[in-house]
Amino acid sequence: PYFTWINKETCIACGVCGASAPALFDYDEEGIAFGLRDDNKGDAEVPSNLIEDLLDAHEGCPTESVRVYENKQK
Length: 74
Ligand code: F3S
Prior knowledge:
Keywords: 4Fe-4S, Electron transport, Iron, Iron-sulfur, Metal-binding, Transport
Cofactor: [4Fe-4S] cluster
Structural class: alpha+beta
Function: Ferredoxins are iron-sulfur proteins that transfer electrons in a wide variety of metabolic reactions.
Strand content: 15-25%
Strand order of the largest sheet: 1-4
Shape: globular
Largest sheet: 2 strands, antiparallel
Bound molecules: FE3-S4 cluster
Number of strands: 4
Organism: Gracilibacillus salinarum
Number of helices: 2
Protein name: Ferredoxin
Helix content: 10-25%
């Protein structure tokens, strides 16, 4: 399984993640991304049909802020 959360400390609000994976990421009022499905906790398993989008977001983020793990992190 895959889990994801955004490192909000390093996100520069570039917008790639939400464009790549709109079902997984949204932005706060400052444009900083967060994980939509678990309030950025990283504890919700990413559905298998969204994994491709997740990996696109992960690869596309210029600051490596889209964290992807195969185990729960927090
Ligand atoms: Fe931020 Fe990276 Fe998304 S900079 S807006 S986490 S693609």
